[in-house]
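Hi R.,

Quick one: here's the L-threonine 3-dehydrogenase, mitochondrial sequence you asked about.
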Amino acid sequence: MPVLRALSKVVKQTLLGSPGCSCQPLTVAVRNISFSPRQVTSDASFHSVSFSETDHPKVLITGGLGQLGVGLAKMLRKKFGKNNVILSDIRKPPSSVFHSGPFIYSDILDYKNLREIVVNNRITWLFHYSALLSAVGEANVALARSVNITGLHNILDIAAEHGLRLFVPSTIGAFGPTSPRNPTPDLCVQRPRTIYGVSKVHAELMGEYYHHRYGLDFRCLRYPGIISADSMPGGGTTDYAVQIFHDAIKSGKFECNLRPDTRLPMMYIDDCLRATLEVMEAPVDTLSMRTYNINAMSFTPEELAQELQKQMPELEVTYDVDHVRQAIADSWPMNFDDSNARKEWGWKHDYDLPELIQTMLNYLSSETRVARAN
Ligand code: SER
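And here's the predicted structure, written out as tokens:
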């Protein structure tokens, strides 16, 4: 039969792999043939662990040693209990992280490793933070494609097969030069020009597809640039807005790699983490969509520097534009329209620019005082 022959050819090709494919052909093919959610009808009930069975969700965070994971784990552990939140990464954790709660090795490109973790720990919620950001992704497209796309496929399948509630962050980077930029609504043209952006649009679409096709409880927020005091971002276009605080405190000088008039949406980490928990806890009937913009403030490097100089008049800011980052920033939203998140599940930010500056300076100067005293 021609259809079967064609199918068997596809299976053989998949089993053997194809040139240039960095994924794990054998595992993926077997999973697709035997266990994939693709074989489950849309009305099938996944073996979801209900909350009557456990008091709290059992949480796994992937990519836990990036900018957001440790803060997210801290917040969730306060609410759900220390042992109910597992932080994971492929890197070795600093001792403070290792001793603050459960930490394990998990490689999102290794499907069996993921499945073992989910099964052995009876995971019910998964926060998928592993990803290469925009600037570092452009410097290593093959790795970004593998982590951000192949890794996401493993996560989606694991989540669907085990009835998990899944959070995947998206970003302002999921938009491109043809999107409306000021403000950018939830639903509009999305033609990003970075591998990071392409992978995040893919994540939004695949998550929504799995939701409609298999009933996966997929939830996704498009984050603005996130500003944090005790963790550093890893290779994004919005990193300057974190670095400026550290350099201001350390040396009183900052060299910015974006033009002074580059306007981007930004948010303080506490708002970002709270929004993440709020959307995960939102009752299903409040969500008309599965992917929402969230916003707090929007500023340019010049505006940030001026506001910072009100507290630190001696701060010197110079500009040396990185053309890769500038081109990325010029294609991104200047401001986010997050009215759907506000209306539907009550999103409200706490930090505007003045509070952000005060909080960052308080934190970093007390850190510096402690370091000097030791
Ligand atoms: N902070 C990210 C980046 O700059 C945007 O989501 O890549």
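Residues 133-134, 171-173, 196, 223, 225, 233, 236-238 surround serine (CB under 6 Å).

Cheers,
M.
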